[in-house]
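Students often ask why inverse folding is considered easier than folding. One informal answer: many sequences map to the same fold, so there is more than one right answer. In these notes we will look at a single instance of the problem. The structure comes first.
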């Protein structure tokens, strides 16, 4: 399993727009992708213009399919990318699960 974590700083005032794009993306992308095991996006109630993506994929091929999808290209690499100041991509490996 591949886990991706993305802390994302948004441009000032873009929280609502970013959340709307993510809500539009989820049913068109992650929810219908066989290799996307989970797709979670968190907001920090104490921090404006910030989102945290935590995503789990069956393997690298599933992640590549996810980022190569038409929905991803339109909504995340397209519209959402224009709202970002900075993001970091952090890979994690599963240690413990129950």
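Output (designed amino acids):
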């Amino acid at each position: 399993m591949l886990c991706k974590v993305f802390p994302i700083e948004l441009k000032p005032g873009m929280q609502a727009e970013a959340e709307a794009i993510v809500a539009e993306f989820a049913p068109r992308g992650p929810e219908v992708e066989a290799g996307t095991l989970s797709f979670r996006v968190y907001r920090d109630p104490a921090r404006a213009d910030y989102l945290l993506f935590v995503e789990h994929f069956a393997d690298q091929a599933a992640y590549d399919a996810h980022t190569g999808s038409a929905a991803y290209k339109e909504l995340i690499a397209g519209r959402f990318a224009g709202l970002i100041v900075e993001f970091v991509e952090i890979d994690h490996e599963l240690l413990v699960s129950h």
